Task: structure prediction
Amino acid sequence: MIWQIEFVVLVIVLICGVAAVTVRDLLGAAVLFGAYSFMMCLLWAIMGAVDVAFTEASVGAGVSTVLFVAAVFRTSRRTKD
Amino acid sequence: MEALWEQILTKANYWMTIALMMVGLYAMITKRNLVKKIIGMNILQTAVILMFISIGAKRGATIPILKHGDAAAAHAPRAVDYINPLPHVLMLTAIVVAVSTLGVALALAVKIYQQNGTLDEADILARQVPRSHEGGP
Result:
Protein backbone atom coordinates (compact mmCIF):
# COMPACT_ATOMS: atom_id res chain seq x y z
CA MET A 1 0.00 0.00 0.00
CA ILE A 2 1.65 3.23 -1.19
CA TRP A 3 0.06 6.06 0.75
CA GLN A 4 0.88 8.80 -1.80
CA ILE A 5 -1.09 7.04 -4.54
CA GLU A 6 -3.91 6.30 -2.12
CA PHE A 7 -4.07 9.93 -1.03
CA VAL A 8 -4.19 11.22 -4.64
CA VAL A 9 -6.92 8.72 -5.55
CA LEU A 10 -8.94 9.72 -2.48
CA VAL A 11 -8.77 13.37 -3.54
CA ILE A 12 -9.86 12.48 -7.10
CA VAL A 13 -12.75 10.42 -5.67
CA LEU A 14 -13.94 13.40 -3.65
CA ILE A 15 -13.63 15.77 -6.63
CA CYS A 16 -15.57 13.39 -8.90
CA GLY A 17 -18.27 12.90 -6.26
CA VAL A 18 -18.76 16.62 -5.67
CA ALA A 19 -18.73 17.30 -9.43
CA ALA A 20 -21.30 14.54 -10.07
CA VAL A 21 -23.81 16.15 -7.72
CA THR A 22 -23.17 19.77 -8.76
CA VAL A 23 -22.94 19.63 -12.57
CA ARG A 24 -26.05 20.99 -14.36
CA ASP A 25 -26.27 18.29 -17.02
CA LEU A 26 -27.59 14.84 -16.16
CA LEU A 27 -25.56 13.05 -18.85
CA GLY A 28 -22.42 14.74 -17.53
CA ALA A 29 -23.42 13.72 -14.01
CA ALA A 30 -23.81 10.10 -15.15
CA VAL A 31 -20.36 10.08 -16.78
CA LEU A 32 -18.79 11.74 -13.74
CA PHE A 33 -20.42 9.13 -11.54
CA GLY A 34 -18.83 6.45 -13.75
CA ALA A 35 -15.43 8.10 -13.25
CA TYR A 36 -16.12 8.21 -9.50
CA SER A 37 -16.88 4.48 -9.49
CA PHE A 38 -13.72 3.64 -11.42
CA MET A 39 -11.61 5.70 -9.01
CA MET A 40 -13.29 3.87 -6.13
CA CYS A 41 -12.39 0.59 -7.84
CA LEU A 42 -8.75 1.75 -8.02
CA LEU A 43 -8.86 2.58 -4.33
CA TRP A 44 -10.01 -0.92 -3.47
CA ALA A 45 -7.32 -2.49 -5.62
CA ILE A 46 -4.78 -0.37 -3.69
CA MET A 47 -6.23 -1.54 -0.37
CA GLY A 48 -5.90 -5.19 -1.43
CA ALA A 49 -9.60 -5.91 -1.92
CA VAL A 50 -9.18 -7.21 -5.47
CA ASP A 51 -12.47 -9.12 -5.54
CA VAL A 52 -14.39 -5.99 -4.53
CA ALA A 53 -12.45 -3.99 -7.13
CA PHE A 54 -13.45 -6.52 -9.81
CA THR A 55 -17.12 -6.35 -8.89
CA GLU A 56 -17.08 -2.57 -8.66
CA ALA A 57 -15.45 -2.18 -12.08
CA SER A 58 -17.94 -4.48 -13.80
CA VAL A 59 -21.17 -3.97 -11.86
CA GLY A 60 -20.69 -0.67 -10.03
CA ALA A 61 -19.06 1.36 -12.78
CA GLY A 62 -20.19 -0.48 -15.93
CA VAL A 63 -23.82 -1.45 -15.31
CA SER A 64 -24.58 1.64 -13.19
CA THR A 65 -23.37 3.99 -15.91
CA VAL A 66 -25.37 2.11 -18.54
CA LEU A 67 -28.50 2.32 -16.37
CA PHE A 68 -27.96 6.04 -15.75
CA VAL A 69 -27.40 6.83 -19.44
CA ALA A 70 -30.47 4.78 -20.43
CA ALA A 71 -32.61 6.58 -17.85
CA VAL A 72 -31.31 10.01 -18.91
CA PHE A 73 -32.08 9.30 -22.57
CA ARG A 74 -35.61 8.19 -21.65
CA THR A 75 -36.18 11.36 -19.62
CA SER A 76 -34.56 14.77 -19.98
CA ARG A 77 -30.97 15.94 -19.74
CA ARG A 78 -31.74 19.34 -18.28
CA THR A 79 -31.77 20.03 -14.56
CA LYS A 80 -32.22 23.19 -12.56
CA ASP A 81 -29.76 22.36 -9.79
CA MET B 1 1.68 19.56 14.10
CA GLU B 2 3.52 16.38 13.21
CA ALA B 3 1.04 14.35 15.22
CA LEU B 4 -1.89 16.08 13.51
CA TRP B 5 -0.59 15.22 10.04
CA GLU B 6 0.04 11.69 11.21
CA GLN B 7 -3.58 11.46 12.37
CA ILE B 8 -4.93 12.89 9.10
CA LEU B 9 -2.80 10.75 6.79
CA THR B 10 -3.17 7.45 8.61
CA LYS B 11 -6.94 7.89 8.94
CA ALA B 12 -7.47 9.50 5.51
CA ASN B 13 -9.91 6.75 4.48
CA TYR B 14 -12.19 7.44 7.41
CA TRP B 15 -12.11 11.21 6.86
CA MET B 16 -12.98 10.60 3.22
CA THR B 17 -15.81 8.27 4.27
CA ILE B 18 -17.30 11.09 6.34
CA ALA B 19 -16.83 13.61 3.50
CA LEU B 20 -18.45 11.34 0.88
CA MET B 21 -21.31 10.52 3.23
CA MET B 22 -21.95 14.25 3.70
CA VAL B 23 -21.82 14.81 -0.08
CA GLY B 24 -24.37 12.03 -0.60
CA LEU B 25 -26.69 13.28 2.15
CA TYR B 26 -26.44 16.83 0.81
CA ALA B 27 -27.41 15.66 -2.67
CA MET B 28 -30.31 13.56 -1.36
CA ILE B 29 -31.72 16.35 0.80
CA THR B 30 -31.20 19.58 -1.16
CA LYS B 31 -31.20 18.56 -4.85
CA ARG B 32 -34.63 18.75 -6.47
CA ASN B 33 -33.89 16.57 -9.50
CA LEU B 34 -34.70 12.90 -8.94
CA VAL B 35 -31.66 11.58 -10.85
CA LYS B 36 -29.42 13.82 -8.72
CA LYS B 37 -31.01 12.35 -5.61
CA ILE B 38 -30.30 8.83 -6.90
CA ILE B 39 -26.66 9.75 -7.56
CA GLY B 40 -26.46 11.04 -3.98
CA MET B 41 -27.87 7.76 -2.69
CA ASN B 42 -25.22 5.82 -4.59
CA ILE B 43 -22.41 8.03 -3.27
CA LEU B 44 -23.69 7.39 0.27
CA GLN B 45 -23.65 3.63 -0.37
CA THR B 46 -20.08 3.67 -1.71
CA ALA B 47 -19.01 5.70 1.33
CA VAL B 48 -20.30 2.93 3.60
CA ILE B 49 -18.51 0.32 1.50
CA LEU B 50 -15.29 2.37 1.71
CA MET B 51 -15.53 2.38 5.51
CA PHE B 52 -15.90 -1.41 5.71
CA ILE B 53 -13.03 -2.08 3.27
CA SER B 54 -10.83 0.31 5.27
CA ILE B 55 -11.57 -1.69 8.42
CA GLY B 56 -10.32 -4.86 6.69
CA ALA B 57 -7.15 -3.25 5.24
CA LYS B 58 -3.87 -3.94 7.01
CA ARG B 59 -0.43 -2.39 6.63
CA GLY B 60 2.30 -4.79 5.49
CA ALA B 61 -0.15 -7.57 4.60
CA THR B 62 -0.95 -9.20 1.27
CA ILE B 63 -4.17 -10.18 -0.47
CA PRO B 64 -6.00 -13.09 1.20
CA ILE B 65 -4.74 -15.91 -1.01
CA LEU B 66 -2.83 -18.63 0.83
CA LYS B 67 0.88 -18.74 0.06
CA HIS B 68 2.45 -22.22 -0.14
CA GLY B 69 -0.96 -23.80 -0.54
CA ASP B 70 0.55 -27.12 -1.62
CA ALA B 71 2.70 -27.35 1.52
CA ALA B 72 0.24 -25.95 4.01
CA ALA B 73 1.35 -28.35 6.73
CA ALA B 74 4.95 -27.12 6.56
CA HIS B 75 4.03 -23.39 6.49
CA ALA B 76 1.20 -22.72 8.88
CA PRO B 77 -0.59 -19.55 7.68
CA ARG B 78 -0.23 -16.53 9.96
CA ALA B 79 -3.26 -14.23 10.06
CA VAL B 80 -0.98 -11.17 10.39
CA ASP B 81 0.28 -11.66 6.82
CA TYR B 82 -3.14 -11.49 5.19
CA ILE B 83 -5.77 -8.77 4.80
CA ASN B 84 -9.04 -9.62 6.54
CA PRO B 85 -11.31 -11.00 3.78
CA LEU B 86 -14.58 -10.92 5.75
CA PRO B 87 -15.45 -7.24 5.01
CA HIS B 88 -14.64 -7.86 1.34
CA VAL B 89 -17.25 -10.62 1.09
CA LEU B 90 -19.87 -8.56 2.89
CA MET B 91 -19.23 -5.53 0.67
CA LEU B 92 -19.36 -7.67 -2.49
CA THR B 93 -22.98 -8.31 -1.58
CA ALA B 94 -23.51 -4.62 -0.79
CA ILE B 95 -22.31 -3.56 -4.27
CA VAL B 96 -24.79 -5.90 -5.97
CA VAL B 97 -27.59 -4.67 -3.71
CA ALA B 98 -26.60 -1.06 -4.51
CA VAL B 99 -26.90 -1.71 -8.25
CA SER B 100 -30.29 -3.39 -7.87
CA THR B 101 -31.64 -0.49 -5.79
CA LEU B 102 -30.24 1.86 -8.45
CA GLY B 103 -32.12 -0.05 -11.15
CA VAL B 104 -35.42 0.07 -9.26
CA ALA B 105 -34.97 3.76 -8.42
CA LEU B 106 -34.21 4.71 -12.02
CA ALA B 107 -37.18 2.67 -13.28
CA LEU B 108 -39.44 4.55 -10.85
CA ALA B 109 -37.92 7.88 -11.97
CA VAL B 110 -38.60 7.05 -15.63
CA LYS B 111 -42.20 6.12 -14.74
CA ILE B 112 -42.62 9.39 -12.83
CA TYR B 113 -41.26 11.30 -15.81
CA GLN B 114 -43.71 9.59 -18.15
CA GLN B 115 -46.63 10.57 -15.93
CA ASN B 116 -45.55 14.11 -15.05
CA GLY B 117 -43.24 15.22 -17.86
CA THR B 118 -40.60 16.46 -15.45
CA LEU B 119 -38.00 15.11 -13.04
CA ASP B 120 -38.08 18.17 -10.79
CA GLU B 121 -39.50 17.31 -7.38
CA ALA B 122 -41.12 20.71 -6.78
CA ASP B 123 -42.84 20.66 -10.19
CA ILE B 124 -44.11 17.11 -9.57
CA LEU B 125 -45.55 18.12 -6.18
CA ALA B 126 -47.14 21.24 -7.74
CA ARG B 127 -48.83 19.00 -10.30
CA GLN B 128 -50.09 16.64 -7.59
CA VAL B 129 -52.09 19.29 -5.68
CA PRO B 130 -54.96 19.96 -8.17
CA ARG B 131 -55.35 16.26 -8.84
CA SER B 132 -56.21 15.60 -5.19
CA HIS B 133 -59.30 17.88 -5.43
CA GLU B 134 -60.88 15.84 -8.22
CA GLY B 135 -62.03 13.25 -5.74
CA GLY B 136 -60.12 10.00 -5.85
CA PRO B 137 -61.49 6.46 -6.06
In short: The two ends of chain B are 68 Å apart (CA to CA). Chain B has a mean pLDDT of 86. Residues 86-116 of chain B form the longest helix (31 residues).
